[in-house]
Design the sequence.
């Protein structure tokens, strides 16, 4: 996955446009992934999850795509709104780990009017 | 469903004192709880994994005698920062994993400021 502790990349998106947030994960054996949204000063909030037996999963205005070949995960947000401004983290479930997740570095999404 | 609370949400303490942070799963039983630390503009750093009724497992580099974790019931875990120093100032977040599920649900976090 992305290294923890580095600077936070920023994605600037115009309101109404679609957002695509990318994440690379580290372990080819990982079989469960979650996208979280974290607003300033708050804890992460579950957005959507996907298991490795799926390539795509859709929620309300969000779609997660999983490419196991290149160990890549993406989150697409349709018609981005000001309330979507937050930091987004991908997380992969580590195998044999009591349910521990490894988090990506995160992407700051800034929605502009 | 799957609500996790933390208390307090903010705490300011003097250097050398101890601070206890509570994490509760409100509507489910959590066999496992996790404690994270987050610095500004950075990702979550796992500190320890806490299983009900057993000793916590700490990540490499986390001092178990400084960050005491107690998971006394299936709905409550506590983190005590002992002999706090200014460098312990951070955002501490807990998460809880329901029994037989993989998702983790996060608390709202506790902002600790050590003067």
Sequence:
């Amino acid at each position: 996955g992305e290294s923890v502790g580095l600077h936070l990349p920023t994605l600037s998106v115009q309101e109404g446009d679609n957002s695509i947030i990318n994440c690379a994960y580290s372990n080819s054996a990982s079989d469960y992934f979650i996208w979280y949204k974290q607003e300033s000063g708050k804890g992460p909030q579950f957005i959507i999850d996907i298991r490795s037996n799926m390539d795509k999963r859709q929620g309300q205005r969000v779609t997660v795509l999983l490419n196991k070949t290149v160990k890549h995960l993406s989150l697409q947000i349709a018609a981005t709104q000001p309330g979507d401004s937050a930091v987004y983290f991908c997380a992969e479930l580590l195998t044999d780990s009591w349910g521990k997740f490894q988090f990506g570095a995160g992407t700051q999404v800034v929605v502009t009017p | 469903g799957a609500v996790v609370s933390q208390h307090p949400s903010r705490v300011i303490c003097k250097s050398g004192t101890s601070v206890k942070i509570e994490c509760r799963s409100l509507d489910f039983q959590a066999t496992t709880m996790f404690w994270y630390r987050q610095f500004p503009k950075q990702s979550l750093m796992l500190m320890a994994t806490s299983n009900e009724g057993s000793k916590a497992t700490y990540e490499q580099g986390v001092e178990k005698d400084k960050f005491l974790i107690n998971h006394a019931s299936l709905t409550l875990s506590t983190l005590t920062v002992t002999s706090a120093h200014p460098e312990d100032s951070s955002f501490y977040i807990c998460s809880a994993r329901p029994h037989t599920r993989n998702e983790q649900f996060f608390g709202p976090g506790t902002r600790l400021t050590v003067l």
Notes: Chain B has a mean pLDDT of 93. The two ends of chain B are 37 Å apart (CA to CA). Chain B touches chain A at residues 2, 4, 6, 32, 34, 41-46, 49, 51, 57, 91, 93, 95, 97, 102-109, 111 (CB under 8 Å).
